[in-house]
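Comment thread on ticket #2218

A.B. wrote:
> Attaching the input chain for the structure job we discussed in standup.
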Amino acid sequence: MTTEAGLFTAALLRWFEVHGRKNLPWQQNPTPYRVWVSEVMLQQTQVAAVIPYYERFMRKFSTVQELAAADEDAVLHLWTGLGYYARARNLRKCAQVLVAQHGGEFPTSLDEVTALPGIGRSTAGATLALSRGDRHPILDGNVKRVLARVFGIAGDPGSATVLAKLWSQADACTPAEGAAAYTQAIMDLGATLCTRARPACTVCPMSGFCVAAREGRQAELPGRKQRRDRGSREATLLIAEMGDEGSRAILLERRPAPGIWGGLWSPPQFESESAALEWCRLEVGEPEALAQRLAPIDHAFTHFDLRLNPIRVRCTPALGVSEGGRLWYQLDAPPKVGLPQPIRQLFSRLASSGNS
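C.D. wrote:
> Ran it. Output below, let me know if you need it in another format.
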C-alpha cells in the first residue's frame, strides 16, 4: 500500500469508527444472502428508500431457497416503486442458480460470484467483503466519486482508461485486514459527506490531503460522463374497465422481459387513440360509450422521457381475455403482481375516484 493510500485508509477507518453507519438492516446478521439482496437494491437507489423495501422483502423471502421458489409476480410486486426492475428478475434467477448449482450457498471466489446472473465485480466484492470479511475492492458510484476527488483522478469515469485507474486506486486502498469495515466506510463517506452536490468538505476526514478540496475541483471531479441526447416517446394507454362500483377491474398485459418495465403488468400501449380503440373492439369488446381522456402521465427513464396518454373505456368483455399474458386487475381487491410505479399511482387515483 502506498503512503497516500495508507493515509487515506487509516483516516477513513478512524472516521468510520465514530461516524459510520452500523445499524442498517442488512448489517444485522450479515449473511451473504442478506448482504447480496441489499447490494442489489442499493444499485442506483439511496439507503433511505431501500430500507422499507428490504425489510418487506426479507420478511417474505428470508432465505435464498424461498426466493428461488417464488413466483416472478410475487418478487416484482414487492419491488414495485423501487425501479430498475431487471434487478428483481436477475435476483430471482440468481437465487435459482444458487440453489440448483451451489446448494443454496454463495460461492467463496470472486470469479464464481461474478458468473452469477446480474452480479458485477463491485457487487460481488461488496457481498464477499461485508458478509465474510474477504478482501475485495469495490467501485460503486459513491466510491468512484470519493476516489476521483481525493486522488485527483480526472476524466469520464465510464471510460475504460479512467475506470482502470479507479479500480487500481480502489485496490491500493483496500486493506488486507478489516475489509468489511473499510468497504462500509468508503460507501458511507460517499453517501453522507462526499456527496455529488454540496460535499461537506469542512468536516470530511480527507480534507487535508484531498486533491479536489485543495484545488477547489469538487464540481469537476469525478468527470462527467459523455452526455447522450435525451429522447422522448409518447403512447396511448388503454384503460379498459369492466364491472360495477366495488368490483371494477382493468385489463392488464404482462410487459415483455426486454425493454422498459420488463415482466411487470400494465395496461396495453398503442401508437394512437384510434389504434387502441380498434384493438379494444377486436380483443376485449365494444366500448359502451365514448372514451374518456385522463391526465397525461409523464415518467423519466435513464435515457428518455415517456408520456402516456390514458384513455378510459368501459367494456363488456368477450370470453378468454384473462388467459395467457393478460389479467383483469381488481381495483378494490388488487392481486399481488408487479406494477410500474406510475401505473400503481394511476390505479390509486381511479380507485379513490369511483365512477367519476
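A.B. wrote:
> Thanks. Noting for the ticket: The CA atoms of residues 255 and 263 lie 5 Å apart.
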